[in-house]
């Protein structure tokens, strides 16, 4: 067994030679909870419980989605990508949401909305910086078993097309699905061939009703990240936490991840868990940009008023925003004793 400690030292050194000692939280914003594929065997969307609770028509409303974006921007959470909603929203609706979210952030954003046609990519170009494809696991045989209705090829084709049109590109990979360490070479090949700008790792979170029962050990998860950092010194690496394993944070940052993602930041706002992630970032020698524990003194009304949307939408966004902020304040006041300074 390779010495993980020396690998982490090498990965951290590589990170620091190529990036500033900073980190942040990257947040995915979901457009719907339902997924039209719904057969990937590790995913909670493949369970009966999910299918009953989330009908194909269950869309999140626009005001809620945009309110989430405004809060994220103010708190310094970068938008990892917009995701979900494929074949639930029409493409015109997806385009409109993407445009409005880029207006909220005041910059082009990233999307992970399934495979897109050339025409669709062209329409999205003014609002989109990067396109992500959820590959999940890289070994073809394993992928066919795990994601029988989500072949890699259409995603691979889209990534190449997107790259040729000047988009940045990325993929997501889940660790703990039964992959072998030897599969890492296939993953490196995929990154090279597609000239990816970013990769997002997730540690499997076992879902009741699936055949999976445990998350990967943190050292094993960190191994994938660290090997990737050493091989690709300038690649942006995002790494997900799982709600039950926030103690991953320090090690995955030391393994060379740029930033963390997949943490229920609103539900956990200001809690001891959120606080511990910020502390772990510090222990890893990184300055944490933004906050998962303190609300800024923002004039939310002014923020919403300044947006280029119609008055009715702005009112709905503001109402939702107030609800969310109040809920975050309650969680924070209940579960922590963090001082405002
Ligand atoms: S992994 Fe993605 S595509 Fe597969 S069922 Fe889950 S949400 Fe749908």
Task: State the CATH architecture.
Answer: Alpha-Beta Barrel
Quick one: CATH class? Alpha Beta
Distance between the termini: 46 Å
Return the structural class.
alpha/beta
Topology pattern, helix = H, strand = E: HEEHHEHEHEHHEHEHEHEHEHH
- CATH homologous superfamily caption: Aldolase class I
Q: Mean of residue pLDDT?
A: 92
* Proportion of residues in extended strands: 5-15%
Name the strands of the widest sheet in spatial order: 2-3-4-5-6-7-8-9
Low-confidence stretches: 337-341
Overall geometry: globular
Q: Compounds present?
A: iron/sulfur cluster
Instruction: Provide the domain count.
Output: 1
The CATH topology turns out to be TIM Barrel
What does this structure look like?
The protein is α/β, with parallel strands linked by helices. The strands form 2 sheets. The chain has an 8-stranded parallel beta barrel, surrounded by 5 helices. The protein has a two-stranded parallel sheet with strand order 1-10. The protein contains 13 helices and 10 strands. Helix content is 45%, strand content 15%. The longest helix is centred in the C-terminal third of the chain and has 25 residues. The chain has a single domain, classed as TIM Barrel, CATH 3.20.20.70. It starts with a helix and ends in a 6-residue tail after the last helix. The site of iron/sulfur cluster has 10 residues, from loops.
């Amino acid at each position: 067994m390779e010495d993980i400690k020396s690998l982490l030292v090498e990965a951290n050194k590589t990170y620091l030679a190529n990036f500033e000692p900073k980190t942040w939280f990257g947040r995915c914003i979901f457009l719907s909870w339902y997924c039209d594929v719904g057969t990937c065997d590790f995913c909670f969307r493949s369970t009966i419980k999910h299918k009953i609770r989330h009908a194909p028509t269950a869309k999140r409303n626009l005001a809620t989605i945009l309110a989430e974006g405004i809060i994220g921007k103010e708190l310094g959470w970068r938008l990892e990508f917009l995701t979900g909603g494929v074949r639930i929203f029409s493409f015109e609706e997806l385009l409109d949401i993407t445009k409005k979210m880029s207006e909220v952030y005041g910059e082009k954003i990233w999307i992970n909305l399934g495979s897109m046609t050339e025409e669709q990519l062209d329409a999205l170009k003014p609002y989109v910086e990067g396109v992500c494809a959820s590959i999940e696991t890289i070994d073809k045989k394993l992928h066919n078993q795990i994601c029988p209705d989500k072949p890699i090829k259409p995603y691979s084709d889209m990534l190449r097309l997107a790259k040729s049109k000047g988009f940045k590109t990325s993929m997501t990979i889940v660790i703990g699905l039964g992959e072998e360490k030897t599969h890492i070479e296939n993953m490196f090949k995929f990154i090279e061939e597609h000239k990816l700008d970013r990769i997002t790792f997730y540690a499997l979170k076992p879902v009741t009703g699936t055949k999976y029962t445990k998350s990967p050990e943190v050292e094993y998860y960190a191994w994938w990240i660290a090997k990737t950092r050493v091989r690709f010194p300038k690649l942006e690496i995002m790494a997900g936490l799982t709600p039950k394993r926030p103690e991953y944070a320090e090690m995955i940052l030391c393994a060379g991840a740029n930033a963390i993602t997949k943490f229920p930041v609103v539900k956990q706002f200001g809690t001891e868990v959120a606080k511990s992630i910020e502390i772990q970032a510090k222990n890893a020698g990184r300055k944490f940009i933004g906050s998962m524990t303190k609300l800024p003194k923002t004039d939310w009304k002014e923020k919403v008023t300044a947006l280029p949307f119609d008055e009715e939408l702005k009112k709905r966004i503001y109402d939702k925003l107030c609800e969310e902020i109040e809920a975050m304040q309650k969680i924070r006041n209940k579960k922590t004793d963090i001082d405002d300074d």
